[in-house]
Amino acid sequence: xxxxxxxFVPVTFALEHFAPDRYxxxxxxxxxxxLPPACCARGSSPKSCPSRSAxxx
Length: 57
Fold this sequence. Notes:
Blueprint: H1 8-18, H2 23-41, H3 50-53
Helix pairs in contact: 1-2
């Protein structure tokens, strides 16, 4: 569900390289990029984190 937000990881790197002076945009992009890994790390259900459902048996 949140996996589409992972597109902001490369966007954040590109912004950091090409527009380092756009602090607010860089921060917003990084904040959106961290949501899917944070969801998985907090111990969410396997339904909301597909990568964990493959390992949970």
